[in-house]
Amino acid sequence: MTAASVLVAGVGNMFLHDDGFGPEVARHLAAQPQPLAPGVRVVDYGIRGMHLAYDLLAGVDTLVLVDTVPPDGVSAPGSIRVLEVSSADLDSRASFDPHGMDPAAVLVRLRSMGGGLPATYVVGCVPADLSEGIGLSPAVAAAVPEAAAAVGSLLGQQSSAPNRSSTST
């Protein structure tokens, strides 16, 4: 029996202030002195959607996307939300841009590329500022350690769940 393969993917555009949240959390996680767990790989994808797609095609049991999430009208900027994503949550009309990063479009296109959707979660942060510029807003920067802890907690829950096999069709 092999350890589950987990990919923690920081996605977003660091040139759009808070959109750089995912890559910042990935850097935070990668800088920790102890790895998250065996079989876990943390990658800062930034806006490299095609690279994420190819890595998913190579085989991943669980994907944790770290990104900004749209405001819900209730949560303040810097709020962390953990969401589970299924195929039913994805809009099949999402447009895949091989030079950009729309995580939903990458996940929708996996089947047409010969892959399947692994168990997928989003650790998301409500942004305060998505205008052009470098650097996270204070509220979102303060949420980076909380998001890293949420990733660790999510992975802890996954490792204690019964082992389920996954196949791509």
What does this structure look like?
The protein is an alpha/beta fold and 169 residues long. The protein has a single domain (6-160), classed as 3-Layer(aba) Sandwich (Rossmann fold). The protein is 28% helix and 20% strand. The longest helix is centred in the C-terminal third of the chain and has 17 residues, at 144-160. The radius of gyration is 15 Å and the shape is globular. Mean pLDDT is 85; it is low at 162-169.
Give me the number of helical elements.
Answer: 5
Shape: globular
Biggest β-sheet description: 5 strands, mixed
Specify the CATH class.
Alpha Beta
Q: Strand-residue fraction?
A: 15-25%
Mean pLDDT comes to 85
Predict the CATH topology: Rossmann fold
What is the topology, as strand order, of the major beta sheet? 2-1-3-5-4
Characteristics of this structure?
169 residues, alpha/beta, Rossmann fold, five-stranded mixed sheet, 5 helices, disordered C terminus
Briefly characterize the structure.
This protein is of the alpha/beta class and 169 residues long.
Give the SSE layout.
Elements: E1 6-11, H1 21-30, E2 40-46, H2 49-57, E3 62-68, E4 80-85, H3 103-109, E5 119-125, H4 138-142, H5 144-160
Parallel strand pairs: 1-2, 1-3, 3-5
Antiparallel strand pairs: 4-5
